[in-house]
Amino acid sequence: MSFARRRPSITAMLLLAGCSGGLKSNLPISQIYVLRPTWSAPATAATAPAGSVQVTLPLAAAGLATDSIVVLRSGERLDYYSGARWAGATPGLLQTLAIDALRGTNRFAMVQSDAGPFASEFVLSLELRHFEAEYTGPGPPTAHVELVCTFGKRGSRDVITSFTVDGKVAADTDRLQAVVAAFERATGDALTQMAANISVPAAGKP
């Protein structure tokens, strides 16, 4: 196999979900992409981290609970890039990244997933509304990441805050590496917004 072969454009790589070969297939081996976004940690007060948080596995909108890289076409039609996928299912990836982002704020003594073994005072519930490469016009797609975040007390189930974070970044070119880079920036934007809006309530507040 020659690695000097020119990478085809993304448009040429689109394949409808469900189309697959049998035991013998001429389809290319899937390229696996990791998602390593960067985000800006919010300014923190000069106090010791306090409280513990569990982050739920995001509830994903239809078509997003997959390791395929999702494409949104005109007419609200979902497709997927053939020969490419994420390193894991999208909800699990976003849960891990949200945990890392909250840990990076240094506001909490502990942040873990909802499968963690320790009791937590607070819970962050996530809904994944968008995680697609949107082809809404001519030219390269736009990576769109949208999460609904609900933060509250675990025992009483009192909601402290609920908000939506949204990241949109246009890919530089219509090629897969550029689209993955756009997803990383859009995800980083969304996580920056999330981290800025979550903190332990001040004493005396619900």
Which secondary structure elements does this structure contain, and how are they paired or packed?
Layout lengths: L9 H4 E2 L15 E3 L18 E4 L3 E2 L7 E6 L3 E10 L3 H16 L4 E4 L8 E13 L7 E12 L5 E12 L5 H21 L10
Parallel strand pairs: 2-6, 3-7, 3-8, 4-8, 5-8
Antiparallel strand pairs: 1-6, 5-6, 8-9, 9-10
Describe the structure.
With 206 residues, the chain is an alpha/beta fold. It has one domain: ABC-type transport auxiliary lipoprotein component (Rossmann fold), CATH 3.40.50. It contains 3 helices and 10 strands. Strands 1, 2, 3, 4, 5, 6, 7, 8, 9 and 10 form a 10-stranded mixed sheet that branches. Strand 5 and strand 6 form a beta hairpin. Helix 2 (90-105) crosses helix 3 (176-196). It is elongated and about 55 Å long. The chain starts with 9 loop residues before the first helix and ends in a 10-residue tail after the last helix. Residues 1-24 have low confidence and may be disordered.
